[in-house]
Amino acid sequence: MLNVAFVYAPIGHCSFEENLRVVNEDFGRLPPLSLSYAAAIAERAGHRVTIVDANALGLTPAETLARLRPLRPDVLGFSLSTYMFRNTTRWMKLLRDALRVPTVVGGPNVRLYPRETLDHEAVDYGVLGFGLRGLPALLDALERGTDPAGLPEVAARNASGEVVLGPVDPNANPYQELPKPARHLLPNDRYYSIISQRRNFTVMVTGTGCAFSCRYCAIAPLPRFRNTLDRVMEEITDCATKLGVREVDFFDADFFGQRKDAVALCERLVRADLDLEWSCRSRIDVLDEPLLELAFRAGCRRIFVGIETPDPRALRAMRKQVRVSDVRLTLDTMRRIGIRPLGFFMLGVPGETHRSALATIGYAVSLPLDYAQFSRMIAKPGSELHDDLRRRTNADYWRDHVLGRPVPARLPNLHSRIGEDAVETYTKLDYLAFYYRPRYVVRSLLKMRSLDELARSARTALRMLTGLKDRDGRKP
Questions:
Q1: Among residues 282, 280, 327, which one has the least CA distance to residue 299?
Q2: How many CA within 13 A on the CB side of residue 222?
Q3: What is the DSSP string of 274-293?
Q4: Within 13 Å, how many C-alpha atoms sit on residue 98's CB side?
Q5: Cut 0.90: pTM above it
C-alpha cells in the first residue's frame, strides 16, 4: 500500500487563453473533478489516498507542504491542463524537491503533449487516457520497484531515458468501470461558481465528447462516451444525501444533445424529489418548451448557451449551425418557465470588423439574458482551429508554451480582420455594457438569495470595474 497525495495547485491565468484575467480569477472555486476520479481509482486499488485542494483552501506552497509532511506520501499526483502547465509544474517542482518522492500527472495536457510533458524536470510519470488500468498498474510498479515503461496507459522513461507511451484503447467506454469521484476527500463547503446560489456546490459530468463539430471547440474531436442513468443517479443521490450538496453544475459539452438520455434523467430527478438545483450547458437549437418545462421541474435553474455572434456568416465559418432568428424566442421561453439563461459570446470571430464587434455588444444587451460571458476566439489546444493554425504558421505555440520556450503574449488569429488589442478592448466593453446597466443591477439584486451571493457579486463587480480598465496580463 502506498500513500498517494493528490495536489490541486491554485488556478492562475495564461495570457493565451480566451478569458480576461479578471474574469478567470473570479469565476469561482470548482472541485477538481479529474483528480477526484484519479483518487477514487487509486483508493479502489487499495492505496491510502489524500487530496489537498490548495486552490479552494487558498494555500501557499509552504502551507501545502506543511499539510503533506505528516502524511509521508510515497507519490504526489497532479492534473495538468495546457493553460496551467507552467503554474502547476512550478508547484510540482517545489513539492517534489522538498518531499523527494516521484510525481505522477494526468489530464488533458498529457493526452495532447505526452512527450513534452515528461520533458519537464518536475514530471516523473504520466497517466494516459482515463487511467483506469494505467494508474493502478503504475502505482503497483512503484510499490514493487519494477520498471513501468511500456505499461498500458502509462508514459514513462525507459532505462535509456527515452519516453515510452503505453498503449491506450481509444474506444473503451470508461464509465463501465469508472468509480464515482472521491468527493469525500474534498472540502465540499468551499466550492462555488460566480453565479451559484446554494451550497454545498459541486460539478459533475454524465458523458464526454459532443455530437457537433464547431471548429473552435477542443471537445468536439474527443470520443463520445455516456455514463448509465443508474450510475448518474447514484452519484447525484450520494452528493445530496451524504455530502449536503444542494447545487450541481453539469459540465457536459451539450447536456441536452442526447435528448432521450436527458429526458430520462430529468424524469428520474423529478421522482427522486431531492432538495437540489442544477445548471448545465446546451446548444440553443436543441431546446424547446416541453423539454425546458421538464428540466425546470427536475431542478434546472440555469442553462448556459453558446450564442457567439449575431453574424450568420461567422457562425457558418465556425461551423456553428445555429439560426440567429431562433435565439430570442428560446431565451424568452426559458425566462418565462423560470430558467435563467447565460449566453456565451465571442469576439474576434471569422471576418470580425469593428462594425461587427460593436454589433455583438448591442446584440448581447438586447437579449433576455440573466448572465453573459464574453471571450476572445482562440485556437484552443486540440481544436480544429489549432490544427489550422499549425498548418498555416508551421508553429505550435501551445507546444512551445509547454516546453518553456519564449512565446508571444497572444496566439495569432488568422480569421479576424481586427487586431488582438482591439478584440480585447471590445471584450471589455461588452462586459461593461452588459453588467453595469442600472436596470440590470437592480434586477440582479432582487434575485439574490443570500448574503454570501451578494458579497461575491459585489466583490466581482468591483474587481471587474477596476480590472477591465487595465491591459490584460501578458505573462503566460
A1: 280
A2: 20
A3: -S-EEEEEE-GGG--HHHHH
A4: 18
A5: yes
Distance (Å, whole) CA 349 – CA 357: 9
Distance between CA atoms of residues 343 and 296, nearest Å: 18
Domains and CATH numbers, the chain: 3-165 (3.40.50.280), 191-377+413-467 (3.20.20.70)
What does the pLDDT read at residue 469? 55
- The radius of gyration of the chain from alpha carbons, rounded to an integer in Å, stands at 22
How far apart (Å, rounded) are the C-alpha atoms in residues 69 and 59?
Answer: 15
Q: Which residues contact 61 (CB under 8 A, 6 or more apart)?
A: 54, 91, 94, 95
**Separation CA 316–CA 297 (nearest Å):** 35
**What's the CA gap between 221 and 205, in Å, rounded?**
17
H or E element in which residue 34 lies: helix 33-44
C-alpha cell at 464: 471587474
DSSP run (H or E) holding 343: strand 340-347
Residue 358 has pLDDT above 70, yes or no: yes
Please determine, for residue 33, whether its predicted confidence score (pLDDT) is greater than 60: yes
Does the pLDDT value for residue 442 go beyond 50? Answer: yes
Q: What is the pLDDT of residues 335-356, one digit of tens each?
A: 999 999 999 999 999 999 999 9
Can you give the pLDDT at residue 473?
Answer: 47
Beta-bridge partner residues of 343: 305, 372
Question: Taking the mean position of all CA atoms in its chain, how far away is CA 433?
Answer: 26
Question: What is the percent of the chain where pLDDT is above 70?
Answer: 94
Task: Give the mean pLDDT of 242-251.
Answer: 97
CA angle, residues 296, 252, 207, in degrees to nearest 5: 110
Residue 470: band (very low, low, confident or very high) from pLDDT cuts 50, 70, 90: low
Residue 425: strand, helix, or coil: helix
Q: How far apart (Å, rounded) are the C-alpha atoms in residues 392 and 12?
A: 30
d(CA 107, CA 84): 11
**Which residues touch 402 (CB under 8 Å, ≥6 apart)?**
82, 85, 109, 113, 116, 117, 120
Alpha-carbon dihedral sign for residues 235, 105, 12, 115: negative
CA 306 from chain centre, in angstroms, equals 15
